[in-house]
Specification:
Four copies of one chain form a homotetramer. With 415 residues, chain A is α+β, with helices and mostly antiparallel strands. Chain A has helices at residues 26-33, 35-38, 60-80, 87-99, 121-135, 141-147, 154-160, 166-179, 188-193, 209-227, 230-251, 262-266, 272-277, 280-285, 290-300, 306-316, 332-346, 386-389, 394-398, and strands at residues 12-15, 19-22, 195-198, 201-205, 322-326, 358-364, 375-377, 383-385, 402-409. Chain A has a four-stranded mixed beta sheet. A three-stranded antiparallel beta sheet of chain A has the order 5-9-6, covered by helices on one side. The B-C interface holds B 2, 5, 13-17, 19, 33, 35, 38, 41-42, 50-51, 53-55, 57-59, 61-62, 65, 177-182, 259-260, 287, 290-292, 294-295, 298-299, 302, 316-319 and C 2, 5, 13-17, 19, 33, 35, 38, 41-42, 50-51, 53-55, 57-59, 61-62, 65, 177-182, 259-260, 287, 290-292, 294-295, 298-299, 302, 316-319.
C-alpha cells in the first residue's frame, strides 16, 4: 500500500479554463500527490468522446482539481455573505469535492458497472475515501461525513452533490471548453456570485434566475450535442461489446491476451462482495485505467476470435458503427433485415449477432424537480423551486425526461 | 449635401469580437466613408446602458459593420450549400445590412420616436437609403428592394430582417461582449453554419435546433439582465423627462440653451410631414447625435428651471432614480404617498410632479411565433417552426410575452 | 461644490475583461459616486483612437476601476507571501490607484497641456485629490502620501506608479482588448502572481522573467500598432489644430461658438496660476469633457472661418490628413512643395498654412532603464534590473528610445 | 495492410482553438480516416508535459488537423493578394502539412531516436508518405515533392517547413492554449494576414514586423516555461532511462513484460536498415503508441529488477526526480557526493547509478538566422531578414542559442 508523502508546497497550477489554480492547503496537496489520485490522470473524463471532439482528452484528474477550485471561490463568496464555514469545514469540503470522483474506473461512465457489476463510481469513491482516511489516520473524517450527508450542515453536502454543485459547474464548463462546443460554456463566476445559504440550504439569489435557466439549457444542449452524440454512443457501445466478448471468451476458457490485474475485472470475477472479502481488491482497482484497456484492445485486433478482432480493429481505426436514433422502439422487421445483412456480411452465428447489432435506450434529464431542487431566494424571504420560480413554465417543461431508442451496426450494413 | 468620395481600398478592420473584418467591396467602403454613416460613430448602440455596464459604449457604427461581416460569412456558407446568390445580390444584401440602422438617432432606442414623433428608426433608415441611392445614382436600387422585401428572393430580406437575421446575431453577441454579460454570448459561427435556404426560405438545419434554443434563451437573458435593467430604465427615462421638460419650456417661450439643429427637434417642430415638405429636414437629422444631447444636458444643469436643472444634474452625476418593477399595476395609494413625498422634498407643483414620478410598462418577447418564424429543416424534408420542433414545449412557453410595470422616482423618496 | 453622498453598497461591476469587479469598501464606493469621478465616464481613454479601432471607446472611468481591481488582487498576493499591508494602507493604495488619472481632461493625452498650458494630468490629479480630501475631511491623507511617494513604505507608491504598476498592467490589457489588437493582451494574473516585496521594493520573482519580457514587447507593439498609429496621429493632430485655431480666433476677438466653461480654456486664459488664485478654476475643469469639445467642433463645421470649418468638417467626417513617418527630418524641398500645393488647393495665406501642414516628433520607449527599474529577484537573494537579468541583451536593446518624425496634410495634396 | 476507405464527406470538426475546422476535400478526408493517421490520436503532442500542465493532453492528430486548417486560411489570403496556387497545389500542400508529423512515435520528441536509433520523425514521415502514396496510387506525388522541397514553387515548401510555417503557428498556439500558458498564445490570424509571396519567397509585409517579433518572443517564452520546464525534463528523462533499462535487461536475456510489436523496438533490433530490408518494419512502427509504452511501465513497476521497478513506480506516481539547471557544467565534487548518496539510499551498483543520476544539455533557439530566414517585405520593394529589419538589435540578440546543463536525481537525495 502506498503511503502519503509529506511534501508541503502550496503550489499554483495552470488551467486553460480558470488561469491559475492554487492548492489551498497541505491536505489537498497530499491527496493530489497520492497514487490513487494520480491514477485519475489516466482516466479520461468523457470516455471515447474524443472520437468526435478531438480536444476532449481531459481527465478526471483535471476535473477534480477544477471543481476544488470552484469550491474555494464559493467558500469565499458564502463567507462574505455571512455564512459561517470553519477552517475545518473548509478543508473537509474541499477534500470531499476533490475526491468525489476518485472511484471512477477506465473510461469513466463508458464502462461503469460493466467491469465491476453493481458498483457505481460513487460507491467506489466512498470505499477509496475510507481507505485514504485510514492511511491518513482520520484526517478525512469530516470530509466523509459531508460526502455521505451525515454532517449537520447540510449545505456543505449540497455544494458537493446536488443539482447545482461544484461538480456540475466544473464539468459542464470543462466539457464545453475541451470539446469546443462553446455554447455549453457557463459563467461559473456569475453563478457562484449568486449563491447563498438560507436556513442551512443552498439557494440562488433572485437576480441569478436567468443564469440558472441558462445553466439548465446549456446542460440540455451538452446532452444532445456531446454526451449522447450518435458517434460517441457508437464508439462507447462498441467498446462495451469488446469487453463483453473478452469476458465471454475468458469464461469459456479461451486464452486471449490480458494484463494483470485487469484480467480479473474482465473475467467478471470481481463483484461488490470481493471488496468486503479482501482489501486487495480495492488496491487492484486503483491499478487499472484507460491505458490497460486500450493496450488490450490493440492486442485483440490480432486475436483469432473474429468477433473480438473485428470489433477491436474497427474501434482502433475509427471505423465506427452507424447509429440510428428514434423516439419509438425500432420495429422487428427492421431489426430482422439488419440481422440478416450483418450475418451475411460478417458470417456470424446467432450468438455472435448481438455484438454487431447493438440496441439500447438513452435519456436526457436537464433538470430533475423530483430529485433535489434548485431553490431561488427572493428578497422578500420567499424560497421557490426554479421550476416554479421562472416567469414561464419552460423549466418545468424541461424537467420532463426525454427517452430515446438507439441502434448501432456496421456501416456497410446500412440499408 | 456631402458627396461620396471615391477612395477604393479594401481595408481590414480590427474587431475585438471577430478579430478581423474585411471590407468586401468598394460600395461598402464608400458607404462607410459617407458622413451619414460616420455619424453612427457618435450614436451609442445601447443608449445609457453604460451607466450600469461601463463597457457598453459601443456604437451603431460598430454594430452595422459587424452585422455586415456576419452577412459575408453567411453568404459563403449558403453558396457552399448550393444556394445561388449573384454578385449583384451579394453587394446589395451587404449594403442593406450595413445601412439597416442608419436611421437611428441620438441614444438609439432610448429617444426613438421622442425627438421626431411617429418616426421609427426603420422609416428613417428607408429615407436615408433613398437619399444615398440618389447621391449614388441608383447603385442602391437592389439593396432597397431587399430591405423593403419587394425583391423576389425573399430569403435575402430574411437575412436582413427576421427573427434570425444578421442584425440580431451581431447585436446579441456584441451587447453581451461589451457589457461583460458573458452568458449572452452566442456562437454566431455555429448558427450561421447551420443555416440553409429551402424553397426560398431561410431555415436552420435539424442539428442546429439546440443552438437556436440557446440563442432564444440568451436573448431572453439579455432582456432582463441588460435591455430592461432597472437602473438603465431609470437613466433612460430620466433623459426622456429632461427632453420633455426642455420641449415644454421651449414651447412656453422660455429661453434655454440649445444647439443648432437639435433645437428644432427639441421644440417638436419636426414631424413625419417635415421630411416630405423639405429635403433639408433629413440633412438636419444627420447632424444630431449623442454629443449634442449631452452637451445640452450639461448646460441645463445650471438652468434656472428647477425641474430641468435637477434632472440634468442628477443624470450627469449618476444620482439615478430608484426603480420599482411589478407584475401588477401599482396601486393608487402607493402612487399618492410617493407623489406627496416628492412634492415636499422637491417643492414641486402639480404639473411638475410627472417629471419626478415616472410610470411605464416594459415588455420582453424572446421569440414571437406570431410574427415571422424560425424554421427548422429536417433531413426528411419536413420544415417546422422552432416552437413546434423543439422536444419540449419550452420555446412556445417562451413565446408568451412578459409584461411588467415600472415606476421611477428620486432615491430620497424611497418609502 | 458637490458633496459626497454616503450610500454604502459594496457592489459588483461587470467588466468584459476581468468578469466581475467588486467594490472593496465604502470609501472606494463614495469616490466612484463622486461627480469628479463620474466625469471620467465622458473622457475616452485613447482620445481619437476609435477612428482607427472602432472598439476603442473605453473611458478613464473604466480604466481607473480596472486598475483598482488589479490592485486588490495584488494586495491579496503580496499578503499571502508575507508582506504586511494594514487595512488603512490597503484602503489608501486602492484610493490612490483609483484616483491616479482623475486629472485627465478631454480626450486624455490628445489635448493634454494644450487646454491648460503647463499642467500635466498628474498635477491635476494631485490637485483634485487634495480637494476630495478636503471634502472628505482627511480620509485621503494616507492615499495622498502614497501617491506623492512621501510614505515610508515605498513599494506602495511603486504599485501606483512605476514601470510595472497597476496602471500600466490595466491600460495595456484594456487598450489591447478594446482595440482588438489581441497580441497586446498581457497576462495580468501571471505577472501579479510573480510580484513580491523585498526590502520594501517591488520585485518580480525569477520565474516571472519571461512574462516581463513579454510585457515589455507587448508594450512596444502597442506603441507602434495603436498609440502611435499614423491615422490616430493624424486625427489627434487635426483636433489640436482645431483647438489652436479656435484659440487664435477668440484671441483676435472673433465671435465663434463656444460652451461654458470650455470657452475659458479655449481662450488660453487658464494657466497654472489660475488654480492657485481661485478655487473655482478646479471646479470649472471638472465640468469639461469630450462632449463639450465635440459639440463645439460640430458647430464649427459651419463657422465662417475657412480654416476652422474645414478642419472641423474633415475631422467629423473622418476625412483625415495623410501621414508620413520618417527616421530623418523631412527635407525642406518636400515641405515647400507640399506648402505650395496646400496653399493652392485650399487658398490659404501664410499664417494659415501651419494648420494644414502639421509637423512633429514621436517617441516610443518600451522600457526606460534610466527611470525606475523592473527588478528581478533571484532565489539566491540577488536582485537585478531586468535589462541586466534577461539571458540576452534584448531588453537593454529595447530600452533605447526610438524617435521618428511625422508630417500630416490633406489627402488631396499627396504628391 | 489497411486500405483507404472511400467515404466522401466534407465534415466540420469542432476545435476549442479555431472554433470550426472544415475538411476541405476528399483526399484530406481519406488521409484523416486512414489508420496511420488515426494512430496519431494516441500520440501526445507534448510527451509528458501534462505532468506539469494537466491540460496538455492534446495529440499529434489534433495538431496536424489544426495546421491543415491554418494552411487553408493562408491559401485564401495569398490568392487574394494575387499569388497563383492551382487546385492541385492546394490539395498537395494541404496533404503535406497534414502528414508532416505522421512519423512521430510514442510520446513524440520525448522518445525520438531512442526507440529507433538514427531515425528522426521527419524521415519516418517521409517513409510513411511514400507508403500512403503507394496505397493511393500516386495521389500524393505532388504532396511529396513539396514536402521534400523538390517542387519548383519554393514558397509552398516554406509554408510546410520554415521558421514561419503553419506547423509552428499551430503548435505554438495549441501548446499555449492547452497548457494554459496564455502568454504564448499568438495571433495566427494576424500573422497569416501579413504573409505574402514575392519572387516565389514567403515574406511578411512591413506592418507585420511587430507581430513577428512577438511570435519569436512567445516561442522563447514557451521554451523556458513549457518545452524545457524542469519537471517535464525530469519526467521525460526518467522515461528515457526506463526504456534504456528495459533494453539492457532484454539484451541480457532477462524476461520482462513487453507487448508485441513494441518489444522489437525495445530490444533495439530495429534500425534504419530494417526499413529498407522489410516492408513489415514500417507497419510495425504504425502499431506502437503512447498506450503500449505506458502499459509496459505499469507492469514494470512490479518487476523484480529494482532499477526498472523503482523508476516505473516513481514515474507512474509522479514521484519525479529533482532537477538542477546551470549555465556551467556541474562540478565533479557535486556529482560525486550525489552519486554516493544515491548509491546508499537506493543500494545500487556502479552500473546502475546512471539510471538515477541523469545528466544532459538543453538548448533554446527562438530564431535561427543561420538556418532559413523570416523575410520582411517593405513597401519600397526591399526584403530584409527580420534580424536586420527590426528597429532594434533584439532579434539578432535572440538568435544566439542558449545552452544549459541539467541534472536529475531522486528527491530524497537533494543535498
Amino acid at each position: 500500500v502506498p503511503t502519503v508523502r509529506s511534501s508541503n508546497k502550496l503550489k499554483i497550477l495552470n488551467d486553460p479554463i480558470y488561469g491559475f489554480i492554487s492548492i489551498p492547503n497541505t491536505l489537498i496537496f497530499d491527496l493530489i500527490e497520492h497514487p490513487y489520485f494520480q491514477r485519475l490522470r489516466r482516466i479520461k473524463q468523457l470516455g471515447l468522446t474524443s472520437y468526435v471532439y478531438p480536444g476532449a482528452l481531459h481527465t478526471r484528474f483535471h476535473h477534480a482539481i477544477g471543481a476544488m477550485h470552484l469550491m474555494s471561490t464559493c467558500i469565499l463568496t458564502l463567507r462574505k455573505k455571512g455564512t459561517e464555514i470553519t477552517s475545518e469545514e473548509e478543508e473537509a469540503v474541499l477534500a470531499a469535492i476533490l475526491l468525489h470522483d476518485i472511484g471512477h474506473g477506465p473510461f469513466s461512465h463508458a464502462l461503469e458497472e460493466l467491469l465491476i457489476p453493481g458498483m457505481s463510481h460513487e460507491k467506489l469513491s466512498a470505499l477509496l475515501m475510507e481507505e485514504l482516511n485510514h492511511q491518513l489516520s482520520g484526517r478525512l473524517n469530516l470530509c466523509i461525513e459531508i460526502f455521505n450527508n451525515t454532517y449537520h450542515k447540510k449545505f456543505l453536502h449540497q455544494l458537493v452533490s446536488s443539482q447545482l454543485d461544484m461538480d456540475r459547474l466544473d464539468y459542464l464548463k470543462r466539457d464545453s471548453f475541451f470539446t469546443g462546443v462553446s455554447e455549453g460554456i457557463i459563467s461559473t463566476d456569475r453563478i457562484i456570485a449568486m449563491l447563498n445559504v438560507i436556513n442551512d440550504t443552498l439557494v440562488v439569489e433572485e437576480k441569478g434566475i436567468y443564469s440558472i435557466e441558462k445553466f439548465i439549457i446549456a446542460r440540455r444542449l451538452m446532452y444532445w450535442q456531446v454526451y449522447l452524440h450518435k458517434t460517441v454512443l457508437s464508439a462507447e457501445n462498441m467498446l462495451v461489446k469488446i469487453i463483453l466478448r473478452a469476458r465471454q471468451l475468458l469464461c469459456e476458457g479461451k486464452k486471449i491476451f490480458t494484463l494483470q490485474p485487469l484480467n480479473e475485472f474482465l473475467e467478471g470475477r470481481i463483484t461488490k462482495a470481493s471488496f468486503r472479502e479482501s482489501s486487495d481488491t480495492l488496491l487492484k482497482f486503483t491499478q487499472i485505467d484507460d491505458d490497460d484497456v486500450f493496450a488490450c484492445v490493440k492486442q485483440w485486433q490480432f486475436d483469432t476470435d473474429k468477433v473480438l478482432s473485428t470489433l477491436s480493429r474497427f474501434l482502433l481505426n475509427r471505423n465506427l458503427f452507424n447509429t440510428e436514433i428514434s423516439k419509438e422502439a425500432f420495429n422487428e422487421e427492421h431489426l430482422e433485415s439488419l440481422s440478416k445483412l450483418i450475418t451475411t456480411n460478417y458470417q456470424l452465428n446467432d450468438k455472435e449477432i448481438a455484438y454487431f447489432l447493438i440496441q439500447g435506450k438513452l435519456q436526457n434529464n436537464a433538470y430533475n424537480a423530483q430529485k433535489d431542487r434548485i431553490n431561488i431566494y427572493y428578497k422578500n424571504g420567499q424560497i421557490l423551486d426554479i421550476a416554479q420560480a421562472a416567469d414561464q413554465l419552460n423549466i418545468s417543461a424541461l424537467s420532463a425526461p426525454v427517452e430515446k431508442f438507439f441502434l448501432c451496426y456496421p456501416k456497410d450494413c446500412l440499408i
